[in-house]
Amino acid sequence: MKAWGGRFEKPTDEFVEQFTASLPFDWRLFRVDVAGSIAHARMLGATGIITTEEAGEVEAGLQRIREQIESGRFEFDVADEDIHMAIERVLTEAIGAAGSKLHTARSRNDQVALDLRMYMKEEIVNCAGLVVALQETLLSVAAENRDAVMPGYTHLQRAQPVLVAHHILAYVQMLARDFVRLVQCFAAADVMPLGSAALAGTGFPIDRQMVADELGFERTGDNSMDSVSDRDFVLDFLGAASTIMVHLSRLCEEIVVWSSSEFGFVALDDAYTTGSSIMPQKKNPDVAELVRGKAGRVFGDLAAVQTMLKGLPLAYNRDLQEDKESVFDALDTVKDCLVAVAGMVGTMTIDADATEAAAGGFAAATDLADFLVEKGVAFRDAHEVVGKIVLDCEKTGKALDELSAQRLAEFHEAFSAGAPALGARDVIARHDSEGGTAPERVAEQFEAAAEQVASAREWLDERG
Ligand code: ARG
User: Ligand 1 centroid vs 195 CA: distance in angstroms?
Assistant: First the structure.
């Protein structure tokens, strides 16, 4: 007999039972479901909707059910449809009449919205913690390689020399924005929907604020129809998760390229690489590749939920059940990827000689042009002159810093009084505009990043 079986004359088709069930995946919500039901029961008791004795029995029964599920002694039955009904059925079997009163002034529509919000709040904090942990790993890698230089790239062509730390700190910035987005997702989820009942609210004298306080919600939802059908917080999270994956996949792509023999900038730790079943020499950056690949899953999760929500009439529709697998998949994927990347980056070694060797060559060309500009040459003209110098070097097989002032003066008289130092470190030191790659500017970025991470840690600590 179903909890809703009163108006039915025939049992549910067996296939339909499987098809409509969410229990195989929403059992994950059991802890928050129990916590939400306990808060609801206490409120029903406090407002006199049920007796305080009944509320106490319900609470004790729910605690036991939580322990049963945690210890694997709970018998899941797909005929229960979802975790909410599974828990309610077992509760009622265990404690009788009081159990059948728990669902007073509540619907699964506001219950599932509550559960998902509670679950997401916890998981958003977990994700944010992993984002910060990765920032910390990147910061220590940057600090360990503080003096290392490398070519900065545009179009994956050597562009201008930069500090390796500057490059790594760019990812710390991306993750700082990811953290902010997660904080916003947390706020979007931090609205308590219970009391909306099926869609229209309830006639019982409920106390929504009590439930919100008990469960640690910032506020209660303002419109019952919106509250039971709003999944914006899910979209916000999937959007934030997608952007995290964009960032991780960019970093991983760099690591794939950098760990190739052609680049040889980094060596990945054996523990974070895998071999080939046929080619004995191979050490593959599979972790980086998989993270790059898994970005697609998370974008897919976002697209799935967006598409599911699009065009849904108010208020609750069963389509909404489809939000969960996407959210769970995105959560699992993003958390695993954050852990994987932190481990991989934290154990890799940067070959500072290789990066420095690659940072020379024509990467100083812009600086040579800038030197002419300082001598009063218009930038476009200077660009033209240096272009010709580069072309000549390519033909003669020389590097820019091998040319004497005399030779340079053949291209422009402004060089006759001397030429600028064109070593990668000289160039880097000159790029001292705000946010630039000069060591003192990078030191500022280190400081700012440390402050951001410290305040992120405070936010995390406040939320356990
Ligand atoms: N399993 C459902 C979901 O995940 C719970 C709500 C079902 N409500 C309903 N009236 N059928 O959305």
Answer: 16
pLDDT mean across residues, the chain = 96
State the DSSP H helix or E strand holding residue 219, giving kind and residue range, or none if neither.
strand 219-220
Residue 277: active-site member: no
Indicate the top mutation candidate among 17, 108, 120 to test ligand 1's pocket, ranked by most ligand atoms within 8 A of CB.
108
pTM exceeds cut of 0.85: yes
The pLDDT, as a whole number, for residue 137 is: 98
Does residue 107 surpass a pLDDT of 80? yes
Q: Which domains does the chain have, with CATH numbers?
A: 5-104 (1.10.275.10), 114-195+222-357+444-462 (1.20.200.10), 365-422 (1.10.40.30)
Gap between the Cα atoms of 257 and 273, Å rounded: 14
pLDDT at 265: 98
Q: Which of 155, 261, 277, 433 is catalytic?
A: 155
Is any atom of ligand 1 closer than 6 Å to the C-beta of 103?
A: no
Convert the pLDDT of each residue in 186-195 to its tens digit: 999 999 999 9
Q: How far apart are CA 161 and CA 426, in angstroms?
A: 10
The residue whose CA is least distant from atom 11 of ligand 1 is 318
Q: What is the DSSP letter of 274?
A: B
